[in-house]
Amino acid sequence: MAARARTEIDAVFVELNAAVDASTRGRARIALTSMPFHDDKVSRSIALSGDDMPTALAVFKTSGDPPARRQIARWRASPHGFPCTLIWDDRHVMCGDAEALRDELVDLMRTPAVGFAIKAIVGTE
Q1: pLDDT in tens, 23-40
Q2: Residue 61 · residue 122 · CB < 8 Å
Q3: Backbone angles phi, psi at 90, to 5 degrees
Q4: What global pTM score does this model have?
Q5: Are the C-beta atoms of residues 101 and 73 closer than 8 Å to each other?
Q6: Residue 76: is it exposed, middle or buried by C-beta count within 10 angstroms (0-12/13-18/19+)?
Q7: Residue 1: what pLDDT?
Q8: Which residues of 86-117 are buried (b: 16+ CB within 10 A; e: fewer)?
């Protein structure tokens, strides 16, 4: 079941990146990564969990050395895949399945902060 859940999460990110690729003409992608933490209680608790799992969702520039990236949300996933948690703005949402994750990512991608992050990564050309 854990492998199936991780496959479902990966499939949601493939869908998301197809849309990001189309809208940025291949200049940006969204990926899970590890990034430094902000100084707040939730971030510290994730950092102290002791695992090596990704801790953030970020916009990456698809070219350039070193690759540019900008965090758009914090991320936490169970070793079993679900539930996974997205933390952004004032939201702290646990997603119990692929559909809930998809819905939350749609809401996240609609925010001005994500638009600004993508613009910062790909430039204004």
Answers
A1: 999 999 999 998 765 545
A2: yes
A3: -95, 10
A4: 0.82
A5: no
A6: buried
A7: 85
A8: bbbeeeebebebbebbbebbeebbeeeebeeb
